[in-house]
């Protein structure tokens, strides 16, 4: 089939490459404009653009798809189907109506759960035991279209957002590969979503990452997992910001939430349910990431001191 692909981050690259490997014709690739990144704010192309350039596919980076000129460009590319994976823009109805076979989207959740921008992170933060990927026929709403195929993926107790992201990226690419022949043959299912079961996964903000040790140890551990490897959960200790990159659930102790329990090369923090999280990797404000044993040697926290106050 002749396909226009729309995607931006690394998550979308696996699907793009699978579509190419399956022998489909790439009419064009739409991705977000290059953006300044890093400390030096160098203009950086999105991963999908780099993948498209590897095979010589034409790349388009419009600021908006609402521009009639952009819509004419898409029309002239004559796609049979548009495949959308984490593109970063909502497709206007005029774009949705261009391809003969419609537009399909790969979403990183088991819809209608976790509609929105950050489904993988929120599944981990909320302590879900499983999630998955869904392909769907695109409609005007946000992740509301009729579902085509789903695949369920388990989430490990200590699995991070980054690890789950890569797992879903691979499963999702295979699911799109299975979906496209069904679409071409006219046999793609249409399962309506139950809006009453819908939950939402809003964008991750700085405030999302603040650890609250008054909550349960599991909540703290899940927040750390859900924001690793980026942007990271954080707290403060002795008046300085402290990012927490890795934790494990630990035992029961007595005291006030936030109380620290240093023991040799380990550091535990008491949470509101009487259980502790063991900190494994941290980063003090302005410093480098390090194992907690190294952090302890430089800071020597005292039993009874509190974190996050």
From TrEMBL:
**Enzyme type, top EC level:** transferase
| Catalyzed reaction equations | L-methionyl-tRNA(fMet) + (6R)-10-formyltetrahydrofolate = N-formyl-L-methionyl-tRNA(fMet) + (6S)-5,6,7,8-tetrahydrofolate + H(+)
* Domain (Formyl transferase N-terminal): residue spans on this chain: 1-178
Residues bound to (6S)-5,6,7,8-tetrahydrofolate are 109-112
Q: Which domain of life is it from?
A: Bacteria
- NCBIfam families the UniProt entry points to: fmt
- What biological function has been recorded for the protein in this entry? Attaches a formyl group to the free amino group of methionyl-tRNA(fMet). The formyl group appears to play a dual role in the initiator identity of N-formylmethionyl-tRNA by promoting its recognition by IF2 and preventing the misappropriation of this tRNA by the elongation apparatus.
Family to which the UniProt record says this protein belongs: Belongs to the Fmt family.
The molecule here is called Methionyl-tRNA formyltransferase
Q: Which organism is it from?
A: Ethanoligenens harbinense (strain DSM 18485 / JCM 12961 / CGMCC 1.5033 / YUAN-3)
